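Dear H.,

Thanks for agreeing to be a second pair of eyes. The structure we're designing against is below in token form, covering all 154 positions.
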């Protein structure tokens, strides 16, 4: 049994990120997907998985212990990258991690208030894809839970 007190200060953001990546890989592997990793994470892709049909999917993993605004720089997460997904690992104390698999296409649904794009044209900030976390928006996230998405990944 592993620790489930995610708020412990010893669990730095880097350690939580590492845990989230391994947890996501193990979860997808448990459904039969083949997982491929790189020794160097220099393009924002944490790992690649192959479906039963031989198609490849790219994954970026983010681990969160608080429902804050989350963003990913456009230079490492953009529709031009192909079959791209964000895996969100939500960590609440005394609970198992919750996994959500969000396709890049979620950001192109106009009525969706949870997934946003900020181009920041003419500003110092780099363009980003973001997720507005709030209790009101959480039902929108449920459709992307791993159990709801796994058949689309295989």
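And this is the sequence the design step returned. I haven't edited it by hand at all.
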């Amino acid at each position: 049994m592993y620790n489930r007190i995610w708020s412990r200060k010893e669990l730095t953001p880097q350690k939580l990120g590492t845990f989230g990546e391994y947890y996501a890989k193990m979860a997808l592997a448990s459904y039969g997907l083949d997982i491929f990793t790189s020794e160097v994470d220099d393009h924002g892709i944490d790992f690649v998985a192959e479906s039963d049909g031989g198609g490849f999917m790219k994954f970026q993993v983010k681990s969160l212990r608080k429902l804050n605004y989350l963003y990913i720089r456009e230079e490492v997460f953009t529709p031009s990258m192909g079959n791209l997904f964000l895996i969100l690992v939500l960590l609440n104390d005394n609970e198992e991690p919750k996994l959500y698999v969000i396709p890049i296409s979620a950001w192109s649904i106009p009525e969706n208030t949870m997934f946003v794009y900020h181009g920041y044209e003419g500003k110092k900030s780099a363009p980003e894809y973001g997720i507005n976390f709030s209790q009101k928006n959480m039902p929108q996230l449920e459709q992307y839970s791993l159990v709801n998405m796994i058949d689309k990944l295989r």
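Two observations from my side: The chain has a mean pLDDT of 91. The two ends are 29 Å apart (CA to CA).

Warmly,
E.
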